[in-house]
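Moderator note: this is an archived Q&A kept for reference. The question asked for a predicted structure of one protein chain; the sequence and the answer are reproduced below.
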Amino acid sequence: KRDIEQSHLCLALPGLPLLHPQRFKLDLLNTVLGQGMSSRLFTEIRDRLGLVYSIHSYVDHFLDSGSLTIYAGVDTRNLTTAIKAILEQLNRIKETVPDGELSRARELSKGQLLLRMEDSHNVAGWLGGQETLTKRILTPEEVTAIIDAITAEELKKLAQELIDGKRLRLAVVGPVAEDTPLEKILKL
């Protein structure tokens, strides 16, 4: 509990480790879900429903584990409704990823990668990180080919495997009473 203007939430699920063969699929699934202004979370929960000030998702890959995390900044009066709306989007992504969404996510992912390669600091991080952590350096062209080969059906299958209500974790900071019954709504 903090006496601040809004509530900040992180809703997380276990993800995939850095060397997992499906990590690029999770990255692309994350792009569909919560990266950019055309993502599901942004268009549905921020734009259409107006429930949050800010919302996005991100993926972390570590050597032995990983996570998929959704962040939102929300008026505390809308906290429960926003969490339910986020859960609805998690359920929806387990059902389908239309070709249009997949295409936009692919192009955004590839565009972000190629833009990062225009900065020498990012290139050094790209090369050094891969060499140190994976002992194998993938070129941007190899990664874009991997992204292009991912299908909507593969994303749906991965979402069904990873998005499990029993594995959800929620952290909220804001003017929220400690006895607010948020655990009851964490169901998929």
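Archived answer notes: Strands lie at 7-14, 52-61, 66-74, 169-173.
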